[in-house]
Specification:
Structural class: alpha/beta
Strand content: 25-35%
Distance between the termini: 11 Å
Radius of gyration: 19 Å
Shape: globular
Helix content: 25-40%
Largest sheet: 9 strands, mixed
Order of helices and strands: EEHEHEEEHEHEEEHEEEH
Length: 226
């Protein structure tokens, strides 16, 4: 468990918003936030059965764009929203904090990783689990797409970025396997004994194994140690 937590945001226009009968409110963005929003929508619909809410887990950046273009009434983000992305016509509301968990296949004997080890893995320096006390197997490194809020937070916390012409860009090994959702990270690692990746702590279940990070056990209490 990384010892800093990400903030989950709900973004919406400042105009009055209500779901009328037979009208659909679209909520789009972060796949991390979508798990929370699905539950909130269910409870809202119990009290407002004539309303329709469509929750789309796509990515944080895509959710912000959907809000800007009017294809969604509410956006979801698991990263900081830049000042130039939304103007005063929108409100940004933090709704939860979430940890980022480093995860492997349950059969992997490695239980703890250090900051230096993760740095070397994602820079392509460490390529075999045997170098970390594991099996003699090549490491299959998994990351999220550039628009992912989880990737933004992960690379920010782990300092896996570099400055190019005044812009902060990713500095991870270009050969890592990139997938588009938390669910795809989990599914891939559950089926691949050699894989390592990161995802929202709320997405962790028995199909994958969360790793301790620098001796910090991945649990709810430690996810708020930031």
């Amino acid at each position: 468990m990384l010892t800093k937590a990400t903030t989950l945001w709900a973004l919406c226009t400042t105009m009055a918003l209500s779901a009328h009968a037979n009208e659909t409110v679209t909520v789009a963005g972060s796949t991390s936030v979508s798990h929370v929003m699905d539950i909130l929508a269910e409870h809202y619909l119990i009290q407002h059965p004539d309303s329709k809410i469509n929750v789309q887990g796509i990515s944080s950046s895509a959710g912000i764009v959907a809000l800007q273009t009017g294809t969604a009434e509410i956006g979801m983000s698991s990263r900081i929203v830049n000042a130039n992305e939304l103007d005063d016509n929108y409100t940004i509301t933090p709704i939860a904090h979430d940890g980022i968990a480093l995860v492997v296949n349950p059969t992997n004997p490695v239980n703890n990783v250090t900051r230096a080890q993760i740095d070397n893995i994602y820079h392509g320096v460490t390529k075999n689990w045997q170098q970390m006390g594991g099996n003699n197997e090549k490491i299959a490194v998994v990351s999220r797409e550039n628009a992912s809020g989880s990737r933004f937070s992960f690379e920010h916390f782990m300092e896996l970025t570099k400055n190019v012409a005044g812009f902060t860009v990713s500095d991870i090994n270009p050969e890592v396997l990139v997938v588009s959702t938390n669910g795809m990270v989990k599914s891939l690692i559950a089926r691949n004994q050699q894989a390592i990746g990161y995802l929202s702590f709320g997405s962790v279940d028995s199909s994958i194994k969360p790793l301790s990070y620098d001796g910090v056990t991945p649990n709810i209490n430690n996810s708020f140690n930031f």
